[in-house]
Design a protein that fits this description.
Layout lengths: L1 E6 L8 H13 L4 E6 L4 H6 L6 E4 L8 H17 L3 E5 L3 H11 L4 E6 L8 H11 L4 E4 L2 H11 L6 E3 L16 H6 L7 E6 L8 H12 L5 E6 L8 H12 L5 E4 L5 H6 L3 E4 L8 H8 L4 E4 L4 H4 L7 E3 L4 H13 L1 H18 L2 H16 L11
Parallel strand pairs: 1-2, 1-4, 2-3, 4-5, 5-6, 6-7, 8-9, 8-11, 9-10, 11-12, 12-13
C-alpha cells in the first residue's frame, strides 16, 4: 500500500506536527511504501531526510503571487499521477488545501486531511478555501476530541468522517531521570531551588505571559522557586524578546531563566519539579505528554486538547485559561502537597502508557490506513 504525506514545511523535528510525522515515517515504513512531500525546501530536509526511511520530494509552493508556485503545483499533480499513491494524507494549512486539490486532480483514490490545533490562525479566506477542499476529502484525522468537535462546528465537516488518533510518545525515552545538576549550574539555578518550567516555542497561542505573571505572584510568596522557559521563536515578531521584556518590567529577571530548545529535552525534564502549559487551543500537547511520561507533575490550562490529557485533581491540576493568579495558586498547592504529586504522576504516566504510547499511535494509524484500503471503514473510537 502506497501512502504519500504532504506537509507545508519540515524545518526540524522539534515542532509538534513534524515530531509526530517523523515518528510515523520511521514507524510505518516497514508496513507501507511511504513518500514525504514538502511544499517548501529546508536545510533540515536537505541534510537529514536520508534518515527518514522513505522517499522525500520537495515542490516549492509558498508564494501565490509567483509563477513558480503554479509551475510546481502542476509538477506536483504530475508527480502524484506517476507515483499513484493509494492514500494522500495532508498536514498543515496549505497542504490541507493545495495538497488535497493536487491529489484529486491526480486521481488519487483516497485523500485524508489533518487538524491538530484550534485554528487560531485561520482567517475567513483560509476557512472558505478549506471548506472547498474538504469536499474532496474522505476523512479528517484530529489528535484530540476537542479539535474534532471544533472541526465539526467551524468547518461543518461530518463528525462520522472525523477520526481521533492521539499523539504517540516513546515511553522508554522519558523514564524519570536523576536531576542533571550540570544543566542547573549552566542555567545559574541554585541546586537547592525548586524549578517550575514551561517547554514551548514562542507563539501567541502558547500564552507565555500567563506563566511569567504567575511567576511574579509566586516570587512574592516564596524565595526557593525558580522558573524556566525552554523554547525559541516560532513566528515572526520576536515574541520571545517580548516575554523577556515583561520579565524585566516585573522585576523578576533573577528568578526566571531562558533556554533554547536544544539538546535532550529529557535533561530539562529531569530538573523540573512542576511542568506548566498555558496554551490556548492547542490540539494535543507533546510537551504535556512528555511531562506525564517523565513523571513531572502538571499544571495546565483548561483549553484545547489539554483536558484530554489532564483531569483536574486526578492526574494533575488545570486552571482557567489566562488566569495567572489561579495558575500561581495551583503551582504552590502542587509543591506543598507531596502525596498529591505522587498520585498525579502515577496516574499521568499510566494514562500515557495505556492510551498514548508510540506503539499505540502507530498501530492505530496502520489500522486506519488499512481500513481505507478495504473501502474506508472506520477505526475504533478513542476513549473519551
Amino acid at each position: 500500500m502506497r501512502i504519500t504525506f504532504i506537509i507545508d514545511h519540515f524545518h526540524h523535528a522539534l515542532g509538534g506536527t513534524e515530531n509526530q510525522l517523523e515518528k510515523m515515517l520511521r514507524g510505518l515504513s516497514r508496513r507501507f511504501e511511504i513518500e514525504l512531500v514538502s511544499l517548501r525546501a529546508s536545510e533540515w530536509l536537505s541534510t537529514r531526510s536520508s534518515g527518514l526511511d522513505c522517499r522525500v520530494s520537495v515542490f516549492q509552493i509558498d508564494k501565490f503571487k509567483r509563477a513558480y508556485t503554479y509551475r510546481n503545483f502542476i509538477r506536483l499533480v504530475s508527480h502524484l499521477r506517476a507515483t499513484k499513491p493509494d492514500v494522500v494524507h495532508t498536514f498543515f494549512p496549505v497542504a490541507n488545501i493545495v495538497g488535497v486539490i493536487a491529489a484529486r486532480l491526480a486521481g488519487v483514490r483516497t485523500i485524508v486531511a489533518s487538524r491538530r490545533d484550534y485554528g487560531e490562525w485561520m482567517n475567513w479566506r483560509y476557512l472558505y478555501m478549506t471548506r472547498i477542499a474538504n469536499r474532496l476529502v474522505a476523512r479528517i484525522v484530529t489528535n484530540s476530541n476537542q479539535v474534532k468537535r471544533l472541526t465539526e462546528q467551524v468547518e461543518r465537516f461530518p463528525g462520522d468522517r472525523i477520526d481521533v488518533i492521539y499523539n504517540g510518545i516513546a515511553m522508554d525515552s522519558f523514564n524519570r531521570a536523576a536531576p542533571v545538576l550540570e544543566l542547573k549550574h549552566a542555567l545559574r539555578i541554585p541546586e537547592s531551588r525548586k524549578v517550575v518550567g514551561l517547554i514551548a516555542n514562542y507563539r501567541p497561542m502558547k500564552r507565555h505571559e500567563t506563566f511569567v505573571r504567575a511567576a511574579s505572584e509566586i516570587v512574592q510568596a516564596r524565595d526557593d522557586i525558580d522558573f524556566l522557559l525552554v523554547g525559541d521563536n516560532a513566528v515572526p515578531g520576536k515574541p520571545k524578546e517580548a516575554i523577556q521584556q515583561l520579565v524585566e518590567s516585573l522585576g523578576i529577571a533573577g528568578r526566571v531563566h531562558f533556554a533554547h530548545a536544544t539538546g535532550n529535552v529529557q535533561d530539562y525534564l529531569s530538573i523540573l519539579d512542576v511542568g506548566v502549559n498555558c496554551s490556548e487551543g492547542e490540539g494535543l500537547s507533546n510537551a504535556i505528554m512528555e511531562y506525564m511520561a517523565a513523571e513531572v507533575p502538571c499544571v495546565v490550562s483548561d483549553s484545547g486538547g489539554n483536558p484530554d490529557l489532564i483531569t483536574d485533581d486526578v492526574n494533575g491540576y488545570t486552571f482557567p485559561l489566562g488566569d495567572h493568579r489561579a495558575l500561581a495558586q495551583k503551582i504552590l498547592h502542587m509543591l506543598e502537597d507531596e502525596p498529591a504529586r505522587r498520585r498525579f504522576t502515577h496516574n499521568a504516566k499510566e494514562k500515557v502508557r495505556n492510551e498514548m504510547s508510540l506503539e499505540s499511535m502507530l498501530g492505530r494509524f496502520a489500522k486506519f490506513y488499512q481500513s481505507l484500503g478495504d473501502g474506508g471503514g472506520r477505526i475504533a473510537k478513542e476513549p473519551n
